[in-house]
Amino acid sequence: YGLVGYKYKGKPLVYFGGFKKHIGFYATPNGHEAFAKEFANYKQGKGSVQFPLDRPLPIELVEKVVLFRLQTINES
Q: Which of 5, 8, 22, 36 could form a disulfide linkage to 50, CB 3.0–4.6 angstroms apart?
């Protein structure tokens, strides 16, 4: 799908990809579940959230998700 992904300690951290009208953000299952309330304002797919290009990118939310994923991996 042409996604860019990051791994940490050999485990998936997050993935994202650019599309015609949105940025797809994939926080892996536990990241998506943990931030379901925050993601509710955005269109979602199976394990993904779509940040529309006509709205500011929620950088603070992305940072929170990445930090959560780092913590989750460190604790596993």
A: 22
